[in-house]
Amino acid sequence: xxxxxxxxxxxxxxxxxxxxxxxxxxxxxxxxxxxxxxxxxxxxxxxxxxxxxxxxxxxxxxxxxxxxxxxxxxxxxxxxxxxxxxxxxxxxxxxxxxxxxxxxxxxxxxxxxxxxxxxxxxxxxxxxxxxxxxxxxxxxxxxxxxxxxxxxxxxxxxxxxxxxxxxxxxxxxxxxxxxxxxxxxxxxxxxxxxxxxxxxxxxxxxxxxxxxxxxxxxxxxxxxxxxxxxxxxxxxxxxxxxxxxxxxxxxxxxxxxxxxxxxxxxxxxxxxxxxxxxxxxxxxxxxxxxxxxxxxxxxxxxxxxxxxxxxxxxxxxxxxxxxxxxxxxxxxxxxxxxxxxxxxxxxxxxxxxxxxxxxxxxxxxxxxxxxxxxxxxxxxxxxxxxxxxxxxxxxxxxxxxx
Length: 402
Description:
globular, six-stranded antiparallel β-sheet, 402 residues, single chain
């Protein structure tokens, strides 16, 4: 039953056709980490196949479960290659799917140790989980840093690019800070690089046209390899701003900030602004009868945004996703922390130090602002939820020996 549901979920995620793109057409069959978000694909493939491996190895040899996962993945990749349109089959998908099956099978074989560990095992598990969370917070902070190569830069006004829609309005002028921009190659690349590094805002004065169904760049700065460095664009009625980050180079998803319902009326003449300065996204739209803006601080707890398969934008509602992310990550720490059977003052102190390290120390050392109150509440709530879950489990299952 569980294996059937896992296979159904995999089929729904991998066997529906997509709109063919140039990137998919150019994906080599033998690549391991493919495309601009290749790392995201690898992680999601592993996570997708873990439930299958867990269910197949329940009371069965691990090797058999892995072999079944490998066979199923092979069938899927062949179907994507020959039958399903708009899908990119690759060796990397096959290997990551098989790895996910193997991890799920190992978890199935050791489920009692993970769910009902003895005291010594629980202490090792909670330490590993705590270190993993701190490393993830620090890694996310590192990944969110803007990075600009020292190369020749070019400016594009309303470019027609294969992967995006075309901005239907007019770009009347644009500036980077106070420096005027014009379409084409920039001569003063060193000055432009310094302005980008300093977080100078990108401004554009435009006259709106029809709303694009997908992202349409209004003004974009690219490097010598035509890679997007800074982009100010329109997606339906929203202003979109994105900056090349270390996450981009790691083939993770690049978070983008949006100001929704700000570009609604065809023919409006507006001044658009996008900036990432001192760890804060700032977007603004100014017109004769309109003035709206949005500012949000980057957070080391945005790890979900780097792996997001649904392209959820960074807007005020993104705090909900951040809260859920922290809640889920810290539940195991609370669960195994109670099973470790430390003294009450030791448990409370350790939990407090852990939360402070992730939500205060990591942002402080990384140059970010202190985490939002909602993140502190979610972290404490996750630990408390894990603790409560452990109490409930004590009434149903005996613990494994240490």
